[in-house]
Design a protein that fits this description.
Layout: H1 9-12, H2 25-42, H3 50-59, E1 63-64, E2 69-70, E3 75-76, E4 82-84, E5 89-90, E6 95-97, E7 102-104, E8 109-110, E9 115-117, E10 119-121, E11 130-132, E12 135-137, E13 142-143, E14 148-149, E15 154-155, E16 160-161, E17 166-167, E18 176-180, E19 183-188
Parallel strand pairs: 1-4, 2-5, 3-6, 4-7, 5-8, 6-9, 7-12, 8-13, 9-14, 12-15, 13-16, 14-17, 16-18
Antiparallel strand pairs: 10-11, 18-19
Length: about 200
């Protein structure tokens, strides 16, 4: 079945004025404030200063369990869209594009260089308008190094996503090792003790 395209793509294209942002003025001002706060108070903080960073993130609207950890070189686009459970962790050099809400369950870790991306563009529209969708990571999830997680993805409890994988859908089974591009189940996780982590 063929897809119909406009005879002239310019007929479908509505030019967006330069300098137009899909974000509200209040959003842009809040992000400007956050950029200053991050540069002066978060990025230079020592790695062990978790309470200090948690306090700053909470001031900026993040919902963090007292034991959650965000390392100083993690780049968070909008802290007010971040929710983290007990002992959840955003590691160094992670990129958290939180245009839509991003939630990490208890004991969930996002490792170095990983990118949680809650926004994209509608490529079916010639104007490429911004689209957003939340990301939810369940409890006891480990996102290994350099993983990409796409907008709208939910990763269930206990999933380990192998390094340099890409997760585009929410169909990964709980308590499995998954890897690849796109990520697929490799095998169920096997535990040395009888019980799974709580």
């Amino acid at each position: 079945m063929e897809t119909e395209h406009p005879e002239n793509l310019n007929d479908a294209y509505q030019e967006v004025p330069k300098g137009t942002s899909p974000h509200s003025l209040s959003n842009r001002l809040a992000r400007m404030l956050w950029a200053v706060v991050y540069t002066l108070l978060v990025r230079p903080s020592p790695r062990f200063a978790h309470r200090w960073r948690n306090w700053i993130y909470r001031l900026m609207g993040a919902k963090l369990h007292p034991t959650a950890r965000i390392y100083p070189t993690a780049r968070v686009w909008a802290p007010w869209n971040i929710t983290m459970g007990a002992v959840a962790c955003l590691g160094d050099l992670t990129d958290i594009y939180s245009v839509a809400p991003i939630t990490l369950g208890a004991h969930t870790t996002v490792s170095h260089y990983s990118f949680l991306c809650s926004a994209s563009h509608d490529f079916e529209d010639p104007n490429f308008p911004l689209t957003t969708a939340p990301i939810t990571l369940g409890a006891n999830v480990w996102i290994a190094a350099d993983v990409f997680v796409a907008p709208g993805v939910t990763i269930p409890d206990g999933v380990v996503v192998g390094a340099r994988s890409s997760v585009f859908t929410s169909n990964l089974p709980a308590w499995h090792l998954c890897a690849g591009n796109p990520a697929k189940p490799i095998r169920a996780r096997e535990f040395k003790s009888a019980a799974k982590p709580k």
